[in-house]
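Reopening this one. Same input as before:
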Amino acid sequence: MKRSRATFKRDTLLNLSIQSVSKCYRGNVWALRGFSLELGPGVLSLLGPNGAGKTIPMSILATITRASEGTVRWKGVDVAADPDALRAILGYLPQDFGVYVNLNAVEFLGRVNTNHAIIGVNGDYCGAV
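Same output, byte for byte:
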C-alpha cells in the first residue's frame, strides 16, 4: 500500500512511543515492568479495575513521575529529557485532584491561570507565576 507524503507526515507528528517502561519503588517493589506501546492518531482508553495499574503509566506519560527504566518518546523527543514537548499538548485530569472547595468555577480557573501564566483566547496575558 502506497502512503501519501501528507499521511506519513501526520502519522509521524502524532507518534507516541513507549518502550520497555518500568517503575520501581523503594524496597524493590515494581509497579510497572516492561510496558511498551506505539500510538498514532486516534483515541486510547486505559480500562481496568482498581489496582490494575492504569495510574502509573499515565503519571509517567503526564511527566508527573519518571520511569525507572525505558523511554517515552513524543514525536521522536525523549520525554524525560524534554518534558515540555509533551506537556505543551497534553491534558491530564487524574481521578483525584486538588481543588479549592470555596471557589466557584470561574474563580478556580482564574487561580489556575495565575499559577500557570496562561494566555487568554484574545491574546491577553491572564496571570504570572
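So the earlier flakiness isn't reproducible anymore. For the record, Strands lie at 16-25, 29-39, 69-74, 77-78.
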